[in-house]
Amino acid sequence: MPHNYEKDDIKEKLSIRDQYDLYDDSHMDKGYKVAICLPTYDMKVNIRTMISLATMWKPNHYYKYKYGPTIDVNRNVLVQEALLDEGTTHILFVDTDMIIPHNLLGRFLLHMEDDKTIDVMSGIYFQRDIPFRSTQFLEWGDEFFKRLRAADYPEGALVDIDAAGAGALLIKRDVFDKIKQPHFEFLLLNYGCQYLGEDITFFKKMKEAGLRTCVDTSIICQHIGAGLIVPLVFERGFLELGEATKMMGENKDLINKEGNKRWYEA
Predict the structure, then answer these.
(1) pTM
(2) pLDDT grade for 255, boundaries at 50, 70 and 90
(3) Which domains are assigned to the chain?
């Protein structure tokens, strides 16, 4: 039989990662309807991504998938299609190479319910290559990017950030009424020799509109190819190249060999 938990108890239960919890989720029946959107440019969705989505707690929801040559166009199409459903309250972007915790959506919705000023919620995930930098930015501008150092924050902290990768992102519906279109777009810089990704330009528009983004440091996603290096990076924070290479050597048995073959001795 499912247990009935008070709201604070639910939060405590949801803070335990890698554990499935049975509970009466009637307290979450707030009229939520979440469009779970998966953009892809190669028509592929990793099976581990689908398993993590299947086991994730979800309120009323539906899936949308968009294949196309560029991710910015795919994201924009998914947004427009989701907004055609007047009942949609949130859009959850999940990239097709992500493994997400089962409590991601539950925690994100609880944060937004507790603090109505939060417009976007992100989890933590890391780039797949050394030095495995986080894809969450405390501050960013034209000339600098100050990345989130996960080791600087306790697990379960709610941290305000300027920008994040869009691999695991929950966005309120009304955000798209408040920011400029196109919502996602690649931006070419330096005579076309550099570019800002579609996720960063989205957050540039968020910042211009005075909207708020937070990251929950207990929601650690795996970027497929990074394997079990992810929790280690979370503990140690930002790694310089030499330190990261040394750590790879010290933890060979804990690292996904398939995703990091070039770092292994023959």
Answers:
(1) 0.76
(2) very low
(3) 7-263 (3.90.550.40)
